[in-house]
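Quick one before lunch.
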Amino acid sequence: TQSDPFDLVVFGGTGDLAHRKLLPALYHREPVGHLGEDARIIAVSRRQLSDTEYRDWARKAICEHVAEVDQEALERFLARIQYVAVDVAQNTGWEALEEKLSGREDVVRAFYLSVSPDFFGPICSALGEHDLVTEKSRVTIEKPIGKNGKSAHEVNETIGSVFKEHQIFRIDHYLGKETVQNLMALRFANVLFEPLWNAAHIDHVQITVAETLGVESRAGYYDTAGALRDMVQNHLLQLLCLVAMEPPESMAPDSVRDEKLKVLKALRPMSAEMVERNTVRGQYRAGASAGGAVKGYLEELGRDDSSTETFVAAKVDIENWRWANVPFYLRTGKRLAARVSEITIQFKDLPHSIFLPDAGRIAANKLVIRLQPDEGVKMQVMIKDPGPGSMRLREVPLDMTFAEAFSSRHPDAYERLIMDMIRGNQTLFMRRDEVEAAWKWIDPILEHWSQIKEAPKPYTSGTWGPSASIALIERDGRTWHDET
Ligand code: NAD
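Model of the nicotinamide-adenine-dinucleotide complex:
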């Protein structure tokens, strides 16, 4: 449906995220008529550019990242865009933004902070000082929210001094992915799964977010963060919450977020001993990826003294009735063997087999929810091999790859999230207490790692990470689900 009129003010309008994600996502809502007639996009950054210069840049971004561009829709879209130069560091240019927004106090005014997190505070303060925050304002912030619990709390305090919690949209783009929402549909729109979704029937859960890319141009930022902060604190824990949460009362934002928060609070805190036993840090070395030779992390960084991890594996326990003794194995890294993000729900073995040994091994059922590259859900079930001979069993997938089930284009996560934000729907955004609870669990891991001072374990680019991560799961008699 068409949105109400809005002004979307994108700070960092000339940045990488705006180029690759935000502008293409917004453009996609144009041909389908979701952008109201009176919707405007106001790009802001430090550079002095005219509207025309910025529109040319935006046109290129869209043509580069959108497969089929409708020229008429593109022109209509570009006509919505205006540009304002504000230098946040120098605190100049705010009057021009004030002028641009004045007289539009009654429309949704959405600020998107696609800039370095160091600017979140100064931007919010300036918006407050210049009286630019209205009743209908909202603010969206990108990750990372802090470097630890304390700094996340400070960021939240600063933003919270200008915006109310219902106006703050903390984006985790994993929550905007179709399959992630399908996980909720699967669990709560079917009777099949929920009765089995507990420790009585599930052996363990695996969550893998594997990239083949290295750190590339983001090395500077990445080296100050590492995989635990960059991926686990937000994306992997959010996925874990959606798998593990109790059925919320409704899809209302706080119903869902209350349940996710309970999961985060139930994560078993990691003692120093557990950190040593249940986590693995890795750093990639030179190797081969996607067919070519690639450099190691330190070479890419241009330094040889970094102990930042580019890989993490962890065994996580959730201390509640539903998940007692059901470990969640998390794993994420760069330069791994394949680009794949998936959640595997491994069910328990049959209590008893009625088949003769020559029927073959009976594999326990497995539900694989894949987020990328090809989004879909697959249920591994046992069937009988066709034919009149003796009973032979075989594992086959009940496959629901969405590209096959639906012919329509697969929207990018940002498309949904930006429109949800404009409409004021916070269901797929993180609430302050969730972010802080996630840090509360992460902080001791970071602390113990820094005390142990052990170098991350090297792994060759193009593999599945350090062998210690394989040992982490195999010592429990289980294996990673590496089928790609
Ligand atoms: P970027 O460095 O490409 O862009 C930064 C933007 O900030 C530019 O438009 C620049 O002009 C603007 N800027 C810099 N200094 C300024 C100043 N003094 N005053 C006003 N504007 C100024 O960064 P990016 O990659 O687009 O990332 C933006 C945000 O999104 C960051 O918070 C980042 O952590 C987050 N993020 C980015 C990605 C990604 O893939 N790029 C992914 C996830 C999160």
